[in-house]
Amino acid sequence: MSDYQHEVELERRSATAARLFDIRLIIGGLFTVYGVIVMIAGFAVSDADLKKAEDININLWTGLGMLLLGLFFLAWIKLRPVVPPTAEELAALQEESD
Fold it and tell me: Which parts of the chain span the membrane according to its record (predicted)?
């Protein structure tokens, strides 16, 4: 394998790792899953629970908010993906620090 092919492979792996460990993915995934779970709990609410909350289905509204926030984070990843620095940028940063 030539040096160029090896460098291209390393850049591809770096980009994959950057996308995999993006905190927006973790936050968006958790809020989406928890939002769906809380919304399901909101659909199965009893009249006594509604009376305690002054006839506001808190689980339903909170679940909807969490779901929307999670979808926002996931859409943010698609619209503004993480771009790892290129080899030239890394070299320039290292020269500045030396």
Answer: 21-46, 58-77
The interaxial angle of helices 58-79 and 23-43, nearest 10 deg, is: 150
Q: What is the DSSP letter of 22?
A: -
pTM over 0.85: no
Beta strands, E only, the chain: none
CB contact at 8 A, 20 and 81: no
Instruction: Give the model confidence (pLDDT) of 4-63 as tens digits.
Output: 566 656 666 666 666 667 888 999 999 999 999 999 999 999 889 889 989 999 999 999
**Is 32:71 a contact under the CB 8 Å cutoff?**
yes
The number of CA neighbours under 13 Å toward the Cβ of 93 is 6
